[in-house]
Amino acid sequence: MTTVESNGLIDNANQAPFPDADVLDVVSLLDPAEQEQLLKIRGHLQRNVRKQVIDYWNSEAFPFEMLPALGDLGLGELVVSNYSCLFRGLVYAEVARVDVSLCALVGIHNELIVGMIDQLGSDAQRAQWLDKLRRFEAIGCFAMTEPDHGSDVAGGMETTATKTANGWVIHGEKRWIGGGTFADFALVWARDTATDTVKGFLVPMDSPGVTANKISNKIGLRIMQNADIFFDHVEISDADALPGAAEFSAANDMLRNSRIWVGWQAYGAQLHTFDVARDYVLGRTQFGQPLAKFQLVQQDLAEMISNAMASFGLMQQVARLQAEGRVEMVHAAMAKSTGSRMLRDSAAKARNMLGGNGTVSTYEAAKIFTDAEIVHTYEGTYEINSLIVARAVTGMSSFV
Fold it and tell me: What percentage of the chain has pLDDT greater than the value 90?
């Protein structure tokens, strides 16, 4: 039986181990301090999260005890630290390389909660929440999607905010809200009944009238606790309104960035699916030789690692545009749609490569395979993001 160390690649005719699936030496693009930190994060995630998180995925439970270590590694403050855009993206990829659900939490936490409070919140809101959020001592959920409105939620939002003498009354329903069952507060988007504009509010989840019900039996992202949240005439104060989110357009930059992190998530999950498939075929013997020697297996492995490196090339250029302040929604949409398409292809190859074991979550391929379906759909479906790209290159929109 052929054995290799974890994350090894066969590099040449002499079977020399390649140190990692990073065949383009992506890590070398970072400065030395960021390289050291990224490798530290990778080591922790691979040793303490990758295998341990499988039981949580199977039981649809959240591993709260893992959060303090993630906070100590700086994963709760990526958007408010002096890290490069490339480093931030590669951290998201490393989290996805062990579990897509945890990457969803880290991405939403940074791009849509910490980022929005930092940029759109009041001084009092920043003082109340940012330090706790940076350490994962507090969690917020991003309450935008509704039962009847997903891709069209900006124009079709039905949740309302009504001004009163003492503040606001929030009324309506939200669906698919990640972390909604355990968050300390919800960042709620609601339509002002007086002005018809969509605004942002911080609503404590223990407020009278707030009810959150877990969405169970998902095929993927099973660790992420998505919820249906009901706001039944919930009274909040004026101080709970986000002053910088008086119009929906205030969220555009951060919603764009959230699609970019999904592109990084897709890249990281491709590395994970490659890690799983390569380790399996190098370690399993059939017909007297390792599966890795069969040409059909080698073909799939070559396409999987090429998919991952092509995804990185796209994401690197998006990170460059981010750093230069020139990134637009078309770039985010292209990153998300392309990465999720390549992930879906690679995950299917890995699941098939493991045969019967590819249908069991403990071998990880089945877990990634079903998680890939969620990545293909959330943060704007694959189709909607593709149409955003097409709109940019044709000047014509196929949807309102």
Answer: 86
Query: What's the CATH fold of domain 21-122?
Result: Butyryl-Coa Dehydrogenase, subunit A; domain 1 (1.10.540)
pTM here?
Answer: 0.92
Q: Does domain 140-246 have CATH number 1.20.1250.20?
A: no
What is the second-level CATH architecture of the domain 9-13+251-394? Up-down Bundle (1.20)
Residue 343: per-residue pLDDT: 98
pLDDT at 400: 64
Structure tokens at 363: 């071998």
Phi and psi of 396, rounded to 5°? -125, 135
CA angle, 101 as apex, 359 and 58 as ends, to 5°? 40
pLDDT in tens, 247-289: 888 888 888 888 999 999 999 999 999 999 999 999 999 999 9
What pLDDT score does 120 carry? 96
Amino acid (1-letter code) at residue 368: I
Question: For residue 305, which amino acid is it?
Answer: I
| Sequential DSSP letters for 141-171 | EEE--BTTBSTTHHHH---EEEE-SSEEEEE
For 233, residues 6+ apart whose C-beta sits below 8 A from its C-beta are 169, 170, 171, 209
Please state the separation of Cα 364 from the chain's center in Å. Answer: 18
Q: How many residues does the chain have?
A: 400
Contact of 117 with 125, CB cutoff 8 Å: yes
Task: Name the β-bridge partners of 210.
Answer: 231
User: What integer pLDDT is reported at residue 5 of this predicted model?
Assistant: 41
Domain boundaries, the chain: 9-13+251-394, 21-122, 140-246
